[in-house]
Amino acid sequence: MFALTMPQADTSHTEYKKNFKLVLETADVKNPIFTFPMQGEAAAQRWCARLNTIFNG
Predict the structure, then answer these.
(1) Which residue from 27, 43, 33, 28 is spatially nearest to 51, judged by alpha carbons?
(2) Best CA proximity match to 38, nearest among 9, 16, 14, 17
(3) How far apart are the first and last CA of the chain?
(4) CB pairs under 8 A, 24+ apart, for 11-20?
(5) What is the mean pLDDT of the segment spanning 10-30?
(6) What distance in Å separates the CA atoms of residue 10 and residue 44, rounded to the nearest whole number?
(7) How do residues 22-48 score in pLDDT, each as one tens digit?
(8) Which residues have C-beta within 8 Å of that of residue 3, sequence separation ≥ 6?
(9) Does residue 9 surpass a pLDDT of 90?
(10) Residue 32 · residue 9 · CB < 8 Å
(11) Per-residue confidence band for 21, with pLDDT thresholds at 50, 70 and 90
């Protein structure tokens, strides 16, 4: 008795991360959102950590 196996199709996942920006939402009704372009994911993460420390101690 033979068991036939079908070849499995290989799948891959590619993720592109680009155009990072830091977005701050404020309580100012006239200008509630500020956006700052970042030069990559690492810079955006550093700024998030800095602002988290400043505002949340």
Answers:
(1) 43
(2) 17
(3) 70
(4) 17/41, 20/44
(5) 83
(6) 34
(7) 998 889 999 899 999 999 999 999 999
(8) none
(9) no
(10) no
(11) very high
